[in-house]
Amino acid sequence: MTHAQNAQQFRINPLTESFGAEILGLDLAKPISDATFAAIQEAFQKYHVICFRDQVMDEKAHLDFTLRWGELEVFPEEDKTTTAKTFYNVANTSREGEHLSEDDPRVLFQKVNARWHTDSSYRYVPSFASVMYSTEILPDEARGGETEFSNMLAAYDALSDADKRRFEPLHMVHYYEFGRRLYPALPPITPFERDAVPPVSHPLVRVHPDRDNQRSLFFTVNAGNEISGMSLEEGQALHKWLDEYASKPEFIYSHRWCENDLVMWDNRVLLHRATHYDMAKYRRAFRRTTVAGNGPAFGPFSLIPAAVTSK
Ligand SMILES: [Fe+2]
């Protein structure tokens, strides 16, 4: 498919049969017309994860593009991997360029994110989308370091009818502090963080009003493992099953990063995780912005919109 960016042409190439697309020939640092932006929005809604190749994006261009989509999420977390409140430094390097040791708390956060998650699931209003730009990528010979995406719309559809019914009333408890349970060496969360992001529950089956009330699975493996309405043991067993279920190859697109990739993904319908790589040997760095969600996640029995409850 070919579209015009003002005087330019660009192409959208699907990356798998079900989701993911790369966009070629578009320069996001240049002004984008409303018509071009509408075509990008359409692609995003259809493919869930879109990769813009060959982008040269400074922080301002990155922010300007993100703001086309909505309000920025401001990170409440203190002392994570960034010094700017609107950029999250997804990296095993510091913002000053130092290659960090594997036990540095900033690197431990990267290990937490090697588990399936959606960004900011631990907020009452989970995020809409993330926009991530590669600044240092692994060399071709290095193994791992991909970002894997798992399609939770497809995962829900593939459930048995019995599991669809069983999961309908369930919620998962999400909390920012869970990473500390996984890596006790991390510094404890601060009173500021505890107030900013207290534990929340989200429906395990998420309903999407912008997709004609289509349903997806909505859970994470980096921000909890408890299921409301089940005993701790039963909930953790179901959570473990979900973790393995999301890892089925038929739901996954694995993105091997190229220099100057800008990848944008839909946190409402996808999970993602980083694959293992040799952190002591290789540097890997990204700059990420996050577009805030516009409301809490709806479940099958949410009151709005009314059509949801009659489905
Ligand atoms: Fe993430």
Automatic annotation (TrEMBL):
Task: Specify the domain of life of the species encoding this protein.
Answer: Bacteria
Q: Which residues form the TauD/TfdA-like domain?
A: 12-290
Keywords, ordered alphabetically: Dioxygenase, Iron, Metal-binding, Oxidoreductase
The record's GO molecular-function terms, alphabetically, read: 2-oxoglutarate-dependent dioxygenase activity; metal ion binding
InterPro entries with a match to the protein in the record: TauD-like_sf, TauD/TfdA-like, TfdA_dioxygenase
The keyword Iron belongs to this UniProt entry's keyword annotation: yes
The answer to whether the entry has keyword Ion transport is: no
Which family does the similarity line name?
Belongs to the TfdA dioxygenase family.
Q: Could you tell me what this protein is called?
A: Alpha-ketoglutarate-dependent 2,4-dichlorophenoxyacetate dioxygenase
From the broadest rank down, the organism's phylogenetic lineage runs: Bacteria, Pseudomonadati, Pseudomonadota, Gammaproteobacteria, Pseudomonadales
